[in-house]
Amino acid sequence: MKHIHTHSRIKKKKSRILTVSIPFFVGRFSLMFCLMFFIAILGVIYMVNFNENATVGYQLAKLESERNKLKTIKEQQNIDLSKSQSLENIRYSTSVAGMVPLSEVQYYDGSLDVALNK
Q1: Rounded CA separation 92/84 (Å)
Q2: Distance CA 117, CA 10 (A)
Q3: N or C: which end of the chain has fewer CB within 10 A?
Q4: In sequence order, what are the residues at sequence separation of 6 or more whose Cβ sits closer than 8 angstroms to the Cβ of residue 6?
């Protein structure tokens, strides 16, 4: 066992310094215990940090996968929209097939009496 003296200084009113000696004993086993305890605390802190990083990584991978799925759906919708707006699709659609061509076109020239909102 080693005997370690610690000194603390206390200031008095007239700037005199009082030194107090406190005996402090440190044994080999208690020093080892403190060192092991400190290492265990560091290990727990490391494991908590590692767990948080792994959780964030998992969430990031999940969100990236969802993003890729949404991008694929958006691309498919754009393809479907382009197909529906193509001239060939419009030409053969049922609503266009039911239209009748006009024989005579009449335009409004303003001479007819039309009810106006006053």
Answers
A1: 11
A2: 98
A3: C
A4: 21, 22, 24
CA distance 35 to 37: 5
- Above 80 in pLDDT, residue 42? yes
Give the integer Cα–Cα distance in Å for 47 and 53: 10
The pLDDT tens digits for 50-104 are 999 999 999 999 999 999 999 999 999 999 888 888 888 777 777 777 788 888 8
Length of the chain: 118
What is the C-alpha separation between 3 and 7, in angstroms, rounded?
Answer: 13
Cα–Cα distance list, 90 to 5, 44, 80, 101 (Å): 98, 67, 13, 16
- Give the position of tokens 């197909």: 83
Q: DSSP states of 72-84 as a string?
A: HHHHHHHHHHHHH
Please check whether residue 26 is in contact with residue 4, taking contact to mean a CB–CB distance below 8 angstroms. yes
